[in-house]
Design goal:
The structure is a single chain. This protein has no helices and 48 strands. With 471 residues, the chain is mainly β. Strands 9, 10, 13, 14 and 15 form a five-stranded antiparallel sheet that branches.
Length: 471
């Protein structure tokens, strides 16, 4: 191969420049001047140099070993002329199986597993020329996911990469933002290079994690203890009082525990929140109300998914008897709520004939246990029920006042019309339910016929048979 563009330069007679082709190692060169040739001379290409990877930089090899790419200069392009030698932690010298080689990079295909900073010492030899040594490190551990620890603590798993071997020295630190660093105890590599477990103490709120593998730190992973969850809420009476909430991840500190209710146009906190069983059971005192409320548990700023609290439904236990022409009744019971508004509380009566009518003008006094309202005209046994903020009551049966006769006309001895005057006789709607019975002897009872109501509730006419005396 001819050295191109030879040029004689100063000092004259003793120095020539020319261009050689790419190569590595050594070669023979001679010069010919006007037909006269010099003797052969051995020259060397520039020796390889190593520049990376360096500790803390990019492209560090994984702790699991495998591909290891050295960077530098003057490596040539023939991997058959390139060798990489290395040691790990001062151990036996290892020889690489070579991969792709370029002028500036060379791939080792079989780096052994390892960990730590500045634990790899490598040399590259190109066509008989060795570089200086390069001291470098295995890749830093990287956290990819962390199990969310329950507020009761326990074993968690941190998965990622470059976690080292089963024998690696592992430290897992955790801390609250702005707080002191603490240890996740009993750390261990359970899946080489990929998974570490450790045991967390009880806690709440946001936390950070960092793993150290043989002295090398990972990235910082921000997460938090598990959010609270609600599985069961007891139903309070409408006067309010204690509510018990069962769930998970409530923590063990009353000072960071809150219960918030919302709905019906307002939001308010449950008072006197306290744990009955750490992590799973709490109680608090709810204000008077009715119907349903959205409920969340807040533990150290972690908010549960909303669950529904429902006050106990109304229950009617007694009803006063109204006159048949209607009027005020007094209804006793419990869980009647705190509002007399027609949009909150409705009361309905249903007669034995199936007709339903509202009981109007509901007025709660005292709240929760008693109200008055005005019923329509009716007779006999009647159903009453109520709805409080969407919650139906039981169906209670009450009686209108019984009929009472205060006077009658005197019928002819030949029989005929008799008029009865009194109270609570009902009206025309109840005519089919009215009967008048009389006796005209010690044990002879007869039914008065052709019955009619001449004045609703107070006057009835009917026909009797012929008779004498009284009956």
């Amino acid at each position: 191969m001819v050295c191109s563009a030879p040029t004689v330069t100063t000092p004259l007679h003793s120095k020539v420049y020319c261009g050689v082709g790419a190569g590595t190692g050594s070669g023979l060169i001679f010069i010919e001047v006007n037909g006269q040739r010099s003797s052969n001379y051995t020259f060397w290409y520039v020796a390889p140099t190593l520049s990376g990877p360096v500790h803390g930089g990019a492209n560090l090899p994984p702790t699991g070993g495998g591909l290891f790419t050295l960077t530098g200069n003057y490596f040539g392009t023939n991997n058959g002329l390139v060798s990489i030698w290395y040691t790990v932690d001062g151990g036996a010298q290892q020889t690489c199986t070579m991969g792709t080689v370029t002028q500036t990079s060379a791939v080792c295909n079989n780096l052994i597993p390892g960990t730590g900073a500045n634990s790899i010492v490598a040399t590259i030899t190109v066509d008989g020329q060795a570089s200086t040594t390069l001291t470098t490190s295995y890749a830093l551990p990287t956290i990819g996911t962390v199990d969310i620890p329950p507020t009761s603590g326990g074993v968690i798993s941190l998965t990622g990469s470059n976690y080292g071997t089963l024998n690696s020295l592992v430290v897992v630190n955790w801390w609250r933002p702005g707080g002191a660093m603490q240890l996740c105890t009993a750390p261990s590599v359970v899946n080489p290079h990929q998974a570490v477990t450790c045991t967390m103490p009880p806690g709440t709120g946001p936390i950070n994690f960092q793993i150290w593998i043989d002295g090398q730190p990972s990235n910082i992973w921000a997460t938090g203890f598990a959010f609270p969850g609600i599985s069961l809420i007891t139903r309070p009476p409408t006067p309010g009082g204690p509510v018990t909430i069962t769930g998970s991840n409530f923590g063990n500190n009353n000072n960071v525990l809150y219960v918030t209710f919302s709905g019906q146009g307002s939001t308010f906190n449950c008072s006197n929140v306290r744990l009955l069983v750490n992590f799973t059971l709490l109680t608090c005192d709810i204000a008077p109300g009715s119907g349903q409320l959205n409920t969340v548990v807040v533990v150290d700023s972690a908010v549960s998914i909303s669950s529904t609290l429902t006050y106990l439904p109304p229950n009617i236990t007694s009803v006063s008897s109204p006159p048949t022409n209607g009027g005020l009744i007094t209804v006793n019971g419990y869980n009647f709520g705190i509002s007399s508004s027609p949009s909150i509380i409705t009361v309905t009566t249903t007669s034995s004939l199936g007709a339903s009518t509202p009981c109007t003008g509901v007025n709660l006094a005292p709240l929760h246990t008693q109200f008055v309202c005005t019923v329509a005209a009716g007779t006999g046994l009647t159903d009453i029920s109520m709805m409080v903020n969407g919650q139906p009551s039981n169906v209670y049966k009450f009686l209108y006042l019984p009929p009472n006769i205060t006077d009658t006309t005197r019928p002819l001895t030949t029989g005929g019309k008799i008029t009865l005057t009194g109270t609570n006789f009902g009206d025309s709607l109840a005519l089919s339910l009215i009967s008048v019975t009389y006796n005209d002897g010690p044990s002879v009872f007869r039914t008065c016929t052709t019955l009619s109501i001449t004045t609703a509730h107070i006057k009835v006419e009917c026909n009797v048979l012929a008779g004498t005396g009284s009956g």
